[in-house]
Amino acid sequence: MSDANTSFDQIASTTLKNYRKTLEDNIFKKLPLFYKLYDNNRKKLDGGEKIVIPLLYGENSTAGSYDGYDVLDTTPQTGISAAEYSWRQYAVTITISGKEERQNSGKEKMINLLEAKTMQAEKSLKKVMDVAAFGSAGDSGSDDINGLQQIVDVAPTTDTFGGINRATSTNAFWRNNATTGIGSFAANGLDEMRTMFNTCSDEGTDTPDILITTQAVFEYYEKLLQVQERFTDSKTADAGFQNLKFKNETLMWDSNCTAGYMYFLNSDYLNLSVHSGCDFILEPFIKPVDQDAKSAKYLWMGNLVSSNCARMGVLSGITA
User: Coil, strand, or helix at residue 133?
Assistant: First the structure.
């Protein structure tokens, strides 16, 4: 007996293929952190056992002036290392039962059903990845992408990240900046923000360009500003995100950011590394032998990685 809708596979594959780009955009471009990282800072990699990021952490001591026949210093130099990150994988499946397929056998009904199921999958995956981005996953113990609580740790001298032990004094270059117990934002917030921003900068240049916090802390900041000083970034606002400016950089809020935290991030050193062969790829519908149903999978493989933790920082313990 033939299927009620003999063109189901063709309709489903075409509909989901057309929706793939929309799914990809909605996952990342509707999340403040990923929105800032996605277009310009997503790096596609071809493979490898791990994601390896070269690090330059020391100066070359042979640099200097000389005269005539002076002997030049040829001392071998250190100061170059690498951080290693594990690949992390995400998947979301879209399943349709034989009953649903037969009930929605018309072409338009089938497309509408698939779009509804795809939207459901998109929203679910978006939530999972956003929660992970603000979580504490790191080198081990989780299948989630690295989270900001690990990348920009409130206790950066006590852990290992990217395979580099931050507790070791010789690895101090790999520690982010952190100030805990901020307390009242009204009393301390602006001063602490200025200090952290400048500490994360390089002589006033190479500054943090992503400032992200909670809704509550965002509103503490907003309350202190005069109406005429509430400048916003129009591009970020056009993307649907509430934002304010601090030192010409964009401050946003995310509902999954840890309570009382504010992150100072630099997108030059915080990257979304994605496997070029698994950037929301869509696999075909498969029908298991023991079910009257079909499933298709969207797959993603990558990680959120850093190449210079010292250019980023976090304030924590912020209250009203």
Answer: helix
Alpha helices in 67-205 (DSSP H): 98-103, 107-133, 148-151, 185-199
Residue 286: beta bridge partners?
A: 295
> From the CB of residue 288, how many other CB atoms can be counted at a distance below 10 Å?
9
The helix/strand/coil state of 272 is: strand
Q: pLDDT tens for residues 33-42? A: 888 887 656 6
How far apart are the C-alpha atoms of 162 and 309, rounded to whole Å? Answer: 11
Of 200 and 73, the structure prediction assigns the larger pLDDT to: 200
Predicted confidence at residue 285, as pLDDT, reads: 85
Is 91 in contact with 297 (CB distance < 8 Å)?
A: yes
Task: Decide if 232 contacts 176 (C-beta within 8 A).
Answer: no
Q: Where are the domains of the chain?
A: 8-56+80-319
- CATH fold of 8-56+80-319, please? phage-related protein like fold (3.90.1690)
Q: Check residue 163 and report its DSSP letter.
A: T
